[in-house]
Write a structure and sequence with these properties.
By secondary structure, this protein is an alpha/beta fold. The protein is built from eleven helices and 14 strands. The strands form three sheets. A nine-stranded mixed β-sheet has the order 3-2-1-4-5-6-12-13-14. A three-stranded antiparallel β-sheet has the order 7-10-11. Strands 8-9 form a two-stranded antiparallel sheet. Bound molecules: nicotinamide-adenine-dinucleotide and (2S)-2-hydroxybutanedioic acid. The site of (2S)-2-hydroxybutanedioic acid has 7 residues, from helix 9. It holds the Pfam family Ldh_1_N.
Amino acid sequence: MDAAPVTVTITGAGGQIGYALLFRIAAGDMLGPHRPVRLRLLEIPQGVRAAEGAALELQDCAFGLLRDVEVTDDPAVAFAGANRALLVGSRPRAAGQDRADLLAANAGVFGPQGAAIAAHAAADVRVLAVGNPANTNALIAATAAEGVPADRFSALTRLDHDRALGQLASALDVSPSHLRDVTIWGNHSNTQFPDVSHATVDGVPVVDALAQRLGGADAAVAWLDNVFIPRVAGRGAEIIEVRGSSSVASAANAVIAHVRDEARGTHDGWTSAALVSRGEYGVAEGLVCSFPVTSDGSGYRVVEGLDLGERVRAGLAASVAELAAERDAVLALGAL
Ligand code: NAD
Ligand code: LMR
């Protein structure tokens, strides 16, 4: 007998990331090769035609796992019975807008969507915010979703995590699959702190492997400080500069990996995701902060008890200060 279908709602489904995401979900990359899916595509009226076009193409792929696809501009319809909500659609930053304007515009998107999730989604719904500013958008949605436990909400920092793996694999000339226990701390912004202090490559501490390859411990620290951290934290801007628009396929790939590992379990160490803080590592409760996380298939949990050195603590504190400022800006708007 077939497994029960999972209803996946994707907002902004007519956009770039949506187009890169839908076909991989329908192919089983996210929830596995035995899990049928129903797709609910939410768009604003201007985006509905693009989402309808994607729906036609999904039909043309004749995916064995795809039960049905519905396109709508009504959040109540889109989130009805949703087991998974991928909040991709957001207001892009317009010319002349500052961060506060962007937060205000997105509060008007993620607040009502959080409320619609609480009113219409399945009891087991899990929500991932992708649209930027992702951490604070997740906070807005979680706050508006009265009755839905806070630990059902996360924001995407898996792309930053995978970017860090890519940079380390290249520097060490190994496959990324040999690396374990890298962490992205903080916000999905350039204040994030990519941390290799617990990371290993084939069981050897990454810092030792870098020292061996780069000619000593000082050279390894210099590479981490001057190349690795700014490269990973600034990669989103680098992609925008080189491509002319923000990352798409790599972002969709990170969404797939985030949900796959959350639903099917992490293996081989931890990954990174932004979760609603319960005070772990001194991060103020309620902020949506990236942590090292694992899942046994029932949801992400923060890996606790790691010894953070002074540099990691300072990097985390700086990024958490930015998250707190974003929360305060949204609070001042009355959106929390
Ligand atoms: P896009 O502009 O191509 O698509 C966004 C879509 O969202 C559009 O089709 C738009 O009509 C739709 N939309 C806007 N408001 C909506 C609403 N209220 N309800 C439903 N749909 C709505 O953008 P994209 O390239 O797909 O990127 C989407 C978001 O993801 C952006 O905010 C981008 O900055 C962010 N992003 C995040 C990460 C991450 O790692 N967290 C990485 C890359 C991009
Ligand atoms: C990314 O990390 O690629 C994006 O979040 C950048 C952006 O601002 O869209």
